[in-house]
Backbone:
């Protein structure tokens, strides 16, 4: 999700890389689940999240769509997000003890929080959002340890590719007047990156780039 905000208002003003230390440590979120509640549609899922959730939990996207995740339009593109359960306005994966029941498979946004990504000039750096985590006295942690994601360089390159692909799709979709075509193109993206099952035995990035090549070929052939 793109936001046009003043960095000075939402962050400590610094840009971080995976090798930097940032004030992130919150004592394992002990006694707190504030950022797993009332998040609306903001925990948007990317293809790696769907790979983790489907292969880790042994559930299809269709099964997850029965309450745990939902679809909505983000900057013109239909994408899945974690659903907040209406009765308690909490993430469907937050257990009664206030802990994440899918910690090893949790989405990238949950791994990042309260970091965010700041994209510029075909790349990104991390920002430390200062108005998000409710805990004070945070300790310094290295960013790559915090995001708890293997293959750091590949993961970084993947996020760049996905971000600029979504920007490109947004441009394409906003230039098309025919609503049916907009719907169809959105369905192609959903099918290509989310609904077609991933193989948990295979490397995610390999599968992602194969799908991206097919998507780019499709767009070229369609002349959009
Ligand atoms: S997936 Fe886990 S960490 Fe993320 S919002 Fe839900 S309960 Fe919280
Ligand atoms: S608000 Fe901070 S301490 Fe509370 S659950 Fe989120 S990251 Fe953890």
Residues:
């Amino acid at each position: 999700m793109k936001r046009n905000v003043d960095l000075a208002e939402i962050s400590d003003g610094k840009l971080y890389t995976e090798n930097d230390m940032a004030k992130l440590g919150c004592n394992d979120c002990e006694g707190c689940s504030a950022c797993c509640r009332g998040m609306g549609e903001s925990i948007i899922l990317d293809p790696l999240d769907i790979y983790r959730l489907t292969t880790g939990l042994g559930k299809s996207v269709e099964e997850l769509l029965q309450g745990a995740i939902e679809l909505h339009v983000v900057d013109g593109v239909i994408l899945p997000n974690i659903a907040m359960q209406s009765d308690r306005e909490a993430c469907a994966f937050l257990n009664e003890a206030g802990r994440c029941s899918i910690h090893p498979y949790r989405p990238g946004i949950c791994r990042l929080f309260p970091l965010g990504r700041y994209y510029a000039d075909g790349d990104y750096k991390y920002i430390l959002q200062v108005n998000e985590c409710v805990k004070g006295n945070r300790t310094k942690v290295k960013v790559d340890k915090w995001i708890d994601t293997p293959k750091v360089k590949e993961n970084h390159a993947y996020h760049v590719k996905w971000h600029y692909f979504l920007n490109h799709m947004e441009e394409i979709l906003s230039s098309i007047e025919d609503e049916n075509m907009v719907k169809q193109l959105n369905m192609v993206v959903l099918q290509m990156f989310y609904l077609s099952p991933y193989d948990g035995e295979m490397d995610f990035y390999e599968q992602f780039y194969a799908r991206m090549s097919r998507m780019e070929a499709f767009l070229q052939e369609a002349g959009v």
